[in-house]
Amino acid sequence: MKKNMPRPNTFYPLYFDHVHPYSFWQNVFTKEECEKIIDLGTSIPLECGETVGNNDFRKSSVSWIFPDPEINWIFEKLSHHINVINDQFFKFDIFGLAEGLQFTKYEAPDNKYQKHTDRLFNTLTRKISVTVQLSEPETYTGGDLCLYQEESPTTLLKSQGTLIAFPSFMLHEVTPVETGTRYSLVAWVTGKPFR
């Protein structure tokens, strides 16, 4: 290299895909559809929502909804909106709802789900966690769905029929329900392992 010639640039930047922290879509389900899902979820025997270890970590009741010709409208509506959100925001390699839908009931005075992620080990790779708000927000207090990107949480929308989606590796919680009952529908979108 000749003296006084500019040195060539040796740096080549890496370009990362930006993953949006969360997305939401209001009025995915109508009031009447939310009530139908609540009727369906409560007609199936509810069981204690379980976690490994600390019994105080999660307090809720759940039932499971699986594909069936009479209720496939729920899955069809969810899959459409999830695909649109994934295409616009997350851009994950996904293939389906492999675990069914979890109908969840949180009751006052203390039902909750402390800070956690939805990732599992040695099993299906959960990529997107989805929550649909089924209750009217004025029918309960507390029971906030909160996401943690930093120390302070982001409290998400509570409007009935809203679908909220976020990467399954994000830390989140449902704060204790203080009055009334919160109903939600939860799904996990699976795909190939992250690389």
Instruction: Enumerate how many helices there are, as a single number.
Output: 2
The topology string of helices and strands comes to EHEEEHEEEEEEEEEE
Q: Which regions have little confidence, pLDDT < 50, spanning 5+ residues?
A: none
Mean pLDDT: 91
Give the CATH H-level superfamily: q2cbj1_9rhob like domain
Radius of gyration: 20 Å
What is the molecular shape? elongated
Distance between the termini: 40 Å
Structure in words:
With 195 residues, the protein is α+β, with helices and mostly antiparallel strands. Helix content is 16%, strand content 35%. The chain contains 2 helices and 14 strands. Strands 1, 2, 4, 5, 6, 8, 9, 12 and 14 form a 9-stranded antiparallel β-sheet that branches. It has a 5-stranded antiparallel β-sheet with strand order 3-7-13-10-11, with no helix packed on it. The model has no long low-confidence stretch (mean pLDDT 91).
